[in-house]
Fold DUF2147 domain-containing protein.
Amino acid sequence: MRKLLFTLALSLASVMSFAQIEGKWRTIDDETGKPKSIVEIFKKTDGKYYGKVIQLLIKPQNPNCVDCKDDRKDKPILGMEVIRGLKKDGDEFNGGTITNPKNGKTYKCFATRNGDKLTVKGYIGISLIGKTQTWEKVD
């Protein structure tokens, strides 16, 4: 009986961890298909999720976000908060924004996790039109 309860508890814990997005994620460059950066996603006291660039794997043409329009303008990409305000909604995280430091544009964002993959979609208007990336979990 103890083994059954232990197995059940482990199974429940592993299933719940797949619904979480906190941790470090390797982003992939759309053009080259190579790893681009490591983004750490964390939960703030407001209960929302945020992600910041903690490592650059490809040296950017400009180390600062010169085209950003908000408080990130001319700030270093390394350490920049690129995801802001995601809220957990079942197995999906939505209601936030993602900023592309390369062009400074900010998009609505949602993310879903499937094992060691995080699907992140940035879009304008409706989510049917946008760009999707798959990020990989970093241990």
Summary: The first strand starts at residue 23 and ends at 28. Residues 19-138 form a domain with the Lipocalin fold (CATH 2.40.128.520).
